């Protein structure tokens, strides 16, 4: 990656950002970044051309539970050096990650996944299909993530981080017993519904209140804040304030069950979804 590559990407009008993977912290990242300052000319070009830096924030060599927290000083360093560079700390899993985003300026945001809202370290340790990177952390971290979803600050928005690894890559069976497996969960077909599941659980457990869980807060997290930060135009026909929106989603509690597995049409690839066999919300697209 070079400043010239960034200039070319910016002219494409279809590239919004560049993903940074530290070396060896997740699946297929063995050739990732080792010296962050070598990328400063690239970051300078990204700031100039207004491309977003998307960061998988884990420190190489750190212990699993501390890798994200120990990477947060690097986020602060990049932000201090390039204050106008838009940065997204992806798939936050810790209170330290949340606090770093909050303490940085308006050019720094964070994404939160449905699976980090629903699991802890223990879940990922015992179930291969809940194992991801960054690995889910403690219950206190999970509670903080749920609270961040509805805080209305626009600092945090939804990111699925769905990764449909074939069952062979998980090196396990359908029961999900953990072995040495690929990091990543497959949630895409139900991930929006799972966010609502997490908010329901949070309300029942007293982590958040029903009054906090407003339509505006949920729409902001799922739809508005990310689009605004990426500066993706929203036509009047797609506005949530429009009387006749062209395309919306409707979520209803109808007892839908997440399938135990999904197989490709040729029968060669089988993928096991996150929270397989559990009931969740149903999602429908509303057109025109």
Automatic annotation (TrEMBL):
Keywords: Hydrolase, Metal-binding, Pyrimidine biosynthesis, Zinc
A Pfam family this chain is assigned to: Amidohydro_2
Cellular component aspect of the GO annotation: cytoplasm
Enzyme class: hydrolase
One term of GO molecular function: metal ion binding
Enzyme Commission no: 3.5.2.3
Boundaries of every Amidohydrolase-related domain copy: 9-93
Annotated InterPro entries: Amidohydro-rel (IPR006680), DHOdimr (IPR004721), Dihydroorotase_CS (IPR002195), Metal_Hydrolase (IPR032466)
GO BP: any one term: 'de novo' UMP biosynthetic process
Pathway it works in: Pyrimidine metabolism; UMP biosynthesis via de novo pathway; (S)-dihydroorotate from bicarbonate: step 3/3
Protein family membership: Belongs to the metallo-dependent hydrolases superfamily. DHOase family. Class II DHOase subfamily.
Protein name, entry field: dihydroorotase
Species for this entry: Heterodermia speciosa
């Amino acid at each position: 990656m070079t400043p010239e590559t960034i200039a070319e990407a910016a002219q494409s009008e279809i590239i919004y950002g560049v993903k940074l993977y530290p070396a060896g912290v997740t699946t297929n990242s063995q050739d990732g970044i080792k010296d962050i300052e070598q990328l400063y000319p690239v970051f300078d070009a990204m700031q100039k051309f207004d491309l977003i830096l998307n960061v998988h924030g884990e420190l190489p060599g750190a212990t699993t539970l501390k890798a994200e927290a120990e990477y947060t000083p690097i986020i602060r360093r990049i932000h201090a050096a390039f204050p106008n560079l838009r940065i997204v700390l992806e798939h936050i899993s810790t209170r330290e990650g949340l606090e770093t985003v909050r303490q940085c300026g308006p050019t720094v945001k964070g994404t939160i996944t449905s699976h980090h809202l629903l699991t802890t370290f223990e879940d990922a340790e015992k179930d291969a299909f809940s194992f991801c990177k960054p690995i889910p952390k403690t219950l206190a971290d999970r509670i903080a993530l749920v609270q961040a979803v509805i805080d209305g600050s626009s600092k945090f928005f939804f990111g699925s981080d769905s990764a449909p690894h074939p069952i062979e890559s998980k090196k396990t069976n359908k029961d999900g017993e953990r072995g040495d497996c690929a990091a990543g969960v497959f949630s895409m077909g139900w991930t929006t519904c799972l966010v609502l599941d997490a908010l329901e659980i949070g309300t029942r457990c007293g982590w958040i209140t029903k009054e906090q869980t407003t339509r505006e807060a949920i729409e902001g997290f799922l739809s508005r804040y990310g689009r605004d930060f990426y500066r993706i135009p929203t036509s009047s026909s797609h506005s949530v304030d429009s009387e006749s929106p062209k395309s919306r989603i409707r979520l209803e509690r109808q007892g839908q069950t997440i399938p135990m597995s999904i197989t490709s049409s040729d029968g060669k690839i089988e993928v096991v979804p996150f929270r397989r066999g559990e009931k969740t919300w149903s999602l429908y697209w509303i057109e025109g």
